[in-house]
Design goal:
Layout: H1 3-29, H2 45-58, H3 65-88, H4 96-105, H5 111-128, H6 131-158, H7 182-197, H8 202-221, H9 227-247
Helix pairs in contact: 1-4, 1-5, 1-8, 2-6, 3-9, 4-8, 5-6, 6-7, 6-9, 7-8, 7-9, 8-9
Protein backbone atom coordinates (compact mmCIF):
# COMPACT_ATOMS: atom_id res chain seq x y z
CA UNK A 1 0.00 0.00 0.00
CA UNK A 2 1.39 3.42 -0.90
CA UNK A 3 1.97 6.14 1.68
CA UNK A 4 -0.51 8.40 -0.08
CA UNK A 5 -3.30 5.86 0.39
CA UNK A 6 -2.40 4.87 3.94
CA UNK A 7 -3.13 8.24 5.54
CA UNK A 8 -6.72 8.66 4.29
CA UNK A 9 -7.56 5.02 5.01
CA UNK A 10 -6.22 5.24 8.54
CA UNK A 11 -8.16 8.44 9.13
CA UNK A 12 -11.40 6.90 7.88
CA UNK A 13 -10.95 3.85 10.07
CA UNK A 14 -10.17 6.02 13.08
CA UNK A 15 -13.26 8.14 12.41
CA UNK A 16 -15.60 5.17 12.37
CA UNK A 17 -13.99 3.72 15.50
CA UNK A 18 -14.97 6.86 17.41
CA UNK A 19 -18.62 5.84 17.52
CA UNK A 20 -18.20 2.54 19.39
CA UNK A 21 -15.42 4.07 21.50
CA UNK A 22 -17.67 6.81 22.83
CA UNK A 23 -20.61 4.45 23.18
CA UNK A 24 -18.60 1.88 25.11
CA UNK A 25 -17.07 4.58 27.31
CA UNK A 26 -20.51 5.91 28.18
CA UNK A 27 -21.94 2.46 28.78
CA UNK A 28 -19.06 1.54 31.04
CA UNK A 29 -18.92 4.72 33.07
CA UNK A 30 -22.16 6.54 32.53
CA UNK A 31 -24.81 4.43 34.21
CA UNK A 32 -26.27 6.16 37.23
CA UNK A 33 -27.78 4.26 40.14
CA UNK A 34 -31.52 3.99 39.87
CA UNK A 35 -31.66 4.75 36.15
CA UNK A 36 -33.05 7.93 34.64
CA UNK A 37 -36.50 9.27 33.94
CA UNK A 38 -37.66 9.07 30.31
CA UNK A 39 -36.00 11.81 28.27
CA UNK A 40 -36.59 13.27 24.80
CA UNK A 41 -38.20 11.22 22.08
CA UNK A 42 -37.43 10.96 18.37
CA UNK A 43 -40.96 12.11 17.54
CA UNK A 44 -40.38 15.43 19.25
CA UNK A 45 -37.06 16.11 17.51
CA UNK A 46 -38.34 18.40 14.69
CA UNK A 47 -40.27 20.59 17.12
CA UNK A 48 -37.31 20.74 19.49
CA UNK A 49 -35.01 21.87 16.69
CA UNK A 50 -37.44 24.64 15.72
CA UNK A 51 -37.62 25.79 19.33
CA UNK A 52 -33.83 25.66 19.59
CA UNK A 53 -33.41 27.84 16.52
CA UNK A 54 -35.82 30.40 17.91
CA UNK A 55 -33.89 30.46 21.19
CA UNK A 56 -30.48 30.60 19.49
CA UNK A 57 -31.24 33.48 17.14
CA UNK A 58 -33.06 35.53 19.80
CA UNK A 59 -30.44 34.86 22.49
CA UNK A 60 -28.69 38.26 22.03
CA UNK A 61 -31.87 39.92 23.32
CA UNK A 62 -31.87 37.77 26.45
CA UNK A 63 -28.25 37.98 27.55
CA UNK A 64 -27.78 38.04 31.32
CA UNK A 65 -25.01 39.96 33.07
CA UNK A 66 -23.20 36.68 33.72
CA UNK A 67 -23.37 35.59 30.09
CA UNK A 68 -22.49 39.07 28.83
CA UNK A 69 -19.09 38.79 30.51
CA UNK A 70 -18.32 35.58 28.62
CA UNK A 71 -19.64 36.86 25.30
CA UNK A 72 -17.59 40.06 25.54
CA UNK A 73 -14.50 37.99 26.30
CA UNK A 74 -15.24 35.73 23.35
CA UNK A 75 -15.82 38.74 21.08
CA UNK A 76 -12.48 40.25 22.10
CA UNK A 77 -10.62 36.98 21.46
CA UNK A 78 -12.35 36.52 18.11
CA UNK A 79 -11.54 40.10 17.13
CA UNK A 80 -7.86 39.62 17.88
CA UNK A 81 -7.87 36.33 16.01
CA UNK A 82 -9.45 37.91 12.92
CA UNK A 83 -6.91 40.74 12.97
CA UNK A 84 -4.01 38.28 13.10
CA UNK A 85 -5.46 35.52 10.93
CA UNK A 86 -3.35 36.17 7.87
CA UNK A 87 -0.14 36.18 9.88
CA UNK A 88 -1.00 33.13 12.01
CA UNK A 89 -1.98 31.06 8.98
CA UNK A 90 1.57 31.44 7.67
CA UNK A 91 3.33 30.28 10.84
CA UNK A 92 3.05 26.57 10.03
CA UNK A 93 5.21 24.90 7.37
CA UNK A 94 2.05 24.48 5.25
CA UNK A 95 3.53 21.66 3.21
CA UNK A 96 1.33 19.45 1.00
CA UNK A 97 1.86 16.52 3.39
CA UNK A 98 0.84 18.61 6.40
CA UNK A 99 -2.32 19.80 4.71
CA UNK A 100 -3.24 16.33 3.48
CA UNK A 101 -2.68 14.69 6.87
CA UNK A 102 -4.64 17.41 8.65
CA UNK A 103 -7.57 17.04 6.27
CA UNK A 104 -7.58 13.29 6.86
CA UNK A 105 -7.77 13.82 10.63
CA UNK A 106 -10.56 16.37 10.22
CA UNK A 107 -12.78 13.66 8.74
CA UNK A 108 -13.52 12.71 12.35
CA UNK A 109 -15.47 15.96 12.64
CA UNK A 110 -17.47 15.72 9.44
CA UNK A 111 -21.24 15.40 9.66
CA UNK A 112 -21.12 11.93 8.10
CA UNK A 113 -18.96 10.81 11.05
CA UNK A 114 -20.65 12.71 13.88
CA UNK A 115 -24.19 11.65 12.99
CA UNK A 116 -23.29 7.93 13.28
CA UNK A 117 -21.66 8.67 16.64
CA UNK A 118 -24.91 10.15 17.93
CA UNK A 119 -26.69 7.19 16.37
CA UNK A 120 -24.37 4.80 18.23
CA UNK A 121 -25.40 6.33 21.54
CA UNK A 122 -29.07 6.01 20.63
CA UNK A 123 -28.72 2.42 19.39
CA UNK A 124 -26.67 1.50 22.45
CA UNK A 125 -29.41 2.92 24.65
CA UNK A 126 -32.08 0.91 22.84
CA UNK A 127 -30.11 -2.33 23.03
CA UNK A 128 -29.09 -1.81 26.66
CA UNK A 129 -32.47 -0.37 27.66
CA UNK A 130 -30.67 2.72 28.92
CA UNK A 131 -32.68 5.97 28.82
CA UNK A 132 -29.49 7.94 29.48
CA UNK A 133 -27.62 6.56 26.48
CA UNK A 134 -30.71 6.84 24.29
CA UNK A 135 -31.32 10.41 25.41
CA UNK A 136 -27.69 11.33 24.79
CA UNK A 137 -28.00 10.09 21.22
CA UNK A 138 -31.17 12.10 20.62
CA UNK A 139 -29.79 15.28 22.18
CA UNK A 140 -26.55 14.80 20.28
CA UNK A 141 -28.45 14.53 17.00
CA UNK A 142 -30.50 17.59 17.90
CA UNK A 143 -27.38 19.60 18.69
CA UNK A 144 -25.78 18.54 15.41
CA UNK A 145 -28.85 19.64 13.46
CA UNK A 146 -28.85 23.00 15.25
CA UNK A 147 -25.13 23.44 14.61
CA UNK A 148 -25.50 22.63 10.91
CA UNK A 149 -28.28 25.19 10.49
CA UNK A 150 -26.45 27.95 12.37
CA UNK A 151 -23.22 27.21 10.54
CA UNK A 152 -24.79 27.37 7.07
CA UNK A 153 -26.62 30.62 7.81
CA UNK A 154 -23.50 32.31 9.16
CA UNK A 155 -21.33 31.04 6.30
CA UNK A 156 -23.77 32.54 3.82
CA UNK A 157 -23.96 35.82 5.72
CA UNK A 158 -20.20 36.19 6.28
CA UNK A 159 -19.07 35.00 2.84
CA UNK A 160 -15.48 34.76 4.05
CA UNK A 161 -12.79 33.40 1.75
CA UNK A 162 -10.75 30.41 2.90
CA UNK A 163 -6.99 30.67 3.52
CA UNK A 164 -6.13 29.31 0.08
CA UNK A 165 -8.69 31.49 -1.75
CA UNK A 166 -7.77 34.75 -3.46
CA UNK A 167 -4.75 36.44 -1.93
CA UNK A 168 -5.10 34.55 1.36
CA UNK A 169 -6.45 37.57 3.20
CA UNK A 170 -9.64 35.88 4.38
CA UNK A 171 -11.85 38.67 3.11
CA UNK A 172 -15.47 38.73 4.24
CA UNK A 173 -18.47 39.13 1.93
CA UNK A 174 -16.68 37.52 -1.00
CA UNK A 175 -18.99 34.49 -1.45
CA UNK A 176 -16.68 32.30 0.60
CA UNK A 177 -17.50 29.64 3.19
CA UNK A 178 -14.71 29.87 5.75
CA UNK A 179 -16.46 31.51 8.72
CA UNK A 180 -17.23 29.78 10.97
CA UNK A 181 -15.66 26.32 10.83
CA UNK A 182 -18.49 23.83 10.47
CA UNK A 183 -16.33 20.94 11.68
CA UNK A 184 -15.47 22.86 14.86
CA UNK A 185 -19.07 23.94 15.46
CA UNK A 186 -20.51 20.47 15.01
CA UNK A 187 -17.74 18.64 16.87
CA UNK A 188 -18.02 20.87 19.92
CA UNK A 189 -21.83 20.80 19.83
CA UNK A 190 -21.81 17.00 20.15
CA UNK A 191 -18.92 17.02 22.63
CA UNK A 192 -20.75 19.58 24.77
CA UNK A 193 -23.87 17.42 24.95
CA UNK A 194 -21.85 14.34 25.90
CA UNK A 195 -19.81 16.23 28.50
CA UNK A 196 -22.91 17.80 30.07
CA UNK A 197 -24.64 14.41 30.20
CA UNK A 198 -21.65 12.75 31.88
CA UNK A 199 -19.99 15.54 33.90
CA UNK A 200 -18.53 13.18 36.51
CA UNK A 201 -17.04 10.74 34.00
CA UNK A 202 -13.71 12.32 33.25
CA UNK A 203 -12.67 9.75 30.66
CA UNK A 204 -15.79 10.41 28.60
CA UNK A 205 -15.44 14.20 28.90
CA UNK A 206 -11.75 14.02 27.95
CA UNK A 207 -12.42 11.87 24.87
CA UNK A 208 -15.31 14.06 23.70
CA UNK A 209 -13.52 17.39 24.03
CA UNK A 210 -10.19 15.92 22.97
CA UNK A 211 -11.58 14.73 19.64
CA UNK A 212 -13.38 18.06 19.08
CA UNK A 213 -10.17 20.01 19.79
CA UNK A 214 -8.12 17.75 17.51
CA UNK A 215 -10.62 18.15 14.69
CA UNK A 216 -10.67 21.92 15.12
CA UNK A 217 -6.87 22.18 15.14
CA UNK A 218 -6.65 20.03 12.03
CA UNK A 219 -8.94 22.41 10.13
CA UNK A 220 -6.48 25.21 10.87
CA UNK A 221 -3.34 23.20 10.11
CA UNK A 222 -4.95 21.89 6.93
CA UNK A 223 -5.48 25.50 5.78
CA UNK A 224 -9.20 24.94 5.43
CA UNK A 225 -9.94 27.66 8.00
CA UNK A 226 -8.35 30.55 9.80
CA UNK A 227 -7.81 30.47 13.56
CA UNK A 228 -10.76 32.80 14.17
CA UNK A 229 -13.06 30.52 12.15
CA UNK A 230 -12.13 27.62 14.41
CA UNK A 231 -12.40 29.60 17.65
CA UNK A 232 -15.81 31.01 16.71
CA UNK A 233 -17.10 27.62 15.61
CA UNK A 234 -15.89 25.87 18.74
CA UNK A 235 -17.40 28.41 21.12
CA UNK A 236 -20.74 28.47 19.28
CA UNK A 237 -20.81 24.69 19.18
CA UNK A 238 -20.21 24.47 22.92
CA UNK A 239 -23.03 26.92 23.66
CA UNK A 240 -25.38 25.09 21.28
CA UNK A 241 -24.67 21.80 23.04
CA UNK A 242 -25.20 23.38 26.44
CA UNK A 243 -28.47 24.94 25.32
CA UNK A 244 -29.81 21.63 24.02
CA UNK A 245 -28.83 19.90 27.26
CA UNK A 246 -30.41 22.53 29.48
CA UNK A 247 -33.56 22.84 27.37
CA UNK A 248 -34.36 19.14 27.75
Amino acid sequence: MSDTNWGPRLARQASWLLAPLLAVSSAAYGQEPGGEAPGPTAAGLPRNILMDQKAIWTSPFRVTHKDAKWWLTFAAIAGVAVATDRRSSRQLPNTPDQRAYSRDISQAGAAYTLIPIAGAFYLGGVLANSPKLRGTGLLGGEALADALIVDEVLKFAAGRQRPLDGNGGGHFFHSGSSFPSGHATESFALASVIAHRYPHKRAVVAVAYGVAALVSASRFSGQKHFASDVVAGGVMGWFIGRHVFEAH
